[in-house]
Design a protein that fits this description.
globular
Length: 250
């Protein structure tokens, strides 16, 4: 039975990924800061272990890997999904905002990858980084997130070369707008600004973002499940855009 670590697993995309891998019969270590929410996810999975800690702290990532090895004997899959960065006008974003944006999504992923790598190598495992479309299509309101995502994509490409040497599959997914609590907040703000209902706000959002539709967390989870499956092993060093057509560049 394969074992997986999924960070950011208490809600949104990370939660959907953890549930999907669990439904495929995998043992899953779910990691985030909110233990109560993680306990709920673990209860739905069954074969799961909860690790509630702050991945921004340098000492935390090795503890997650240690928990996975202790509970399940090793690590076959690592999904780095933790990290939400602050949006806003560049001049209003503080030093603390920037440091926090990188501390979790970038450095948390790097440290966890470093801690898990020997175990992924031993089992010819898979690393999947959940980055974001802002890393390829930056925007004025997303200077932190776009920069962090771009760094994570570069890290993915570099680790894919290491993975060729060590037998570890490495890929990244770039979600566009996905129906999470964060997006719902943006849509509610848009509805209030335009004085329209939720359905109309969604249509305005789709038109202005120039996308086919808003994604669901389960969409991203399905892609992760395919990547780590036997047919998905051909994917290596791929930066997969799942954004409804938001990314226009070649």
């Amino acid at each position: 039975m394969k074992s997986a670590i999924v960070t950011g697993a208490s809600r949104g995309i990370g939660r959907a990924i953890a549930l999907r891998l669990g439904a495929l019969g995998m043992q899953v270590v779910v990691c985030a800061r909110d233990r109560e929410l993680l306990e709920g996810v673990a209860g739905e999975i069954g074969a799961a272990d909860v690790v509630a800690l702050d991945l921004r702290l340098p000492e935390s990532p090795p503890l997650v890997v240690d928990a996975a090895v202790k509970a399940f004997g090793g690590v076959d899959i690592l999904v780095n999904c933790a990290g939400a960065t602050k949006r806003g006008d560049f001049e209003a974003l503080t030093e603390a905002d920037w440091m926090d944006g990188y501390a979790l999504k970038m450095f948390g992923a790097v440290r966890l990858t470093r801690a898990a790598w020997p175990y992924l190598k031993a089992r010819s495992g898979s690393l999947v980084n959940i980055a974001g479309s802002g890393g390829r299509t930056p925007g004025a309101e997303f200077t932190i997130g776009g920069s962090v995502n771009a760094a994570l994509l570069s890290f993915t490409k570099a680790m894919a070369d290491v993975g060729l040497r060590d037998g570890v599959q490495v890929n990244a997914i770039n979600p566009g707008p996905v129906r999470t609590a964060r997006l719902e907040t943006r849509l509610a703000k848009l509805a209030a600004e335009r004085n329209v209902d939720a359905a109309a706000a969604l249509q305005i959002f789709l038109a202005e973002e120039k996308i086919a539709r808003v994604g669901e967390p389960e969409d991203i989870a399905a892609m992760v499940a395919f990547i780590v499956s036997a047919p998905g092993r051909l994917l290596h060093g791929s930066l997969i855009d799942m954004d409804g057509g938001l990314t226009k560049t070649m």
